[in-house]
Each structure stands twice: as structure tokens, then as C-alpha cells.
Amino acid sequence: MTFPIKAEHETKRPIIVTAIGVLFILAGAVGFVYHWHRPYDRDFAMIESIRALTAVGGAFLLLGHGWARWLILLWLGLHVGMSALDSVGKFAFHLVLLLLIGYALLRPPASEYFRAKRGAAR
């Protein structure tokens, strides 16, 4: 019996990257479906595009594309800004979420994972 040899540049995806990727796929999909029943809203296309972008960011995060983590952080940053115009509670929630997810995606285990994936693609 032979076993495939793991390439030395292959890095296992950190569980936190998996959790964040799945969270954003679900958030994008649920938001997309939730807003779909209101196609008469003037911002319908923009809202649906942003929701789809959320799911795409989560999916590419799972695939190890480094640009996806920046997309996720940009998306959260925009939500922090929009929440600041709404209420202090929503602002605080999104700010804490941005800080926690930013910390998780920029820590060495995640950075090494994305770096290894980028190196493997070359």
C-alpha cells in the first residue's frame, strides 16, 4: 500500500480560517436570500452584489487565496463605517468583529497558510 507524499510546501489550513470562511459563505448566502424578496428596492443590485461578494470572499478564503482575507477585512471595515451611522451598539459589535477576525487572519498561522498557498501556485 502506498500513501501520497505530502509536498513540503503544503500547509494545513488553520481551523480559524476554516471557521471564518464558512461564516462568511453562510452570511453571504443567507443575506442574499433574505434580501432577494425585495427586488423593488432602489439599492437591490448593490445589496445583492455585496452579499455575493461576501460568500465569494469566504469561499476563496477556504481555497487559500490571500487577497480574500483583505476582501473580508475591507467588507467588515465598511460595515463598521455604516454601523457608526446607525447605532453605537451595532458600531461596537462590528468593530469588535473586525478586530477579532483581523487578528485571526493576520496572525502567523494564517499568514503562513496563505504564504504557502501563494508559493505553491507559482
Would you kindly provide a written description of the structure presented here, covering whatever features stand out?
The chain has 5 helices and no strands. The chain has 122 residues and is an all-alpha fold. It has one domain. The chain is globular, with a radius of gyration of 17 Å.
Tell me the helix content.
Answer: over 70%
Q: Could you give the distance between the termini?
A: 31 Å
Radius of gyration: 17 Å
> What is the total domain count?
1
Q: What's the number of helices?
A: 5
Mean pLDDT across the residues is 88
Number of strands: 0
Which geometry do the CA atoms define? Answer: globular
Q: Low-confidence parts, pLDDT < 50 over ≥5 residues?
A: none
Query: Structural class of the secondary structure composition?
Result: mainly alpha
Q: Which sheet architecture does the biggest sheet show?
A: none
Q: Secondary-structure element order, as H and E?
A: HHHHH
β-strand amount: under 5%
Keywords summarizing the entry:
122 residues; mainly alpha; 5 helices; 76% helix; 0% strand; globular
Write a concise synopsis of the structure shown:
With 122 residues, the protein is mainly alpha-helical. Helices cover 76% and strands 0% of the residues. It has one domain.
Note the topology:
Layout: H1 15-36, H2 44-62, H3 66-84, H4 88-106, H5 108-121
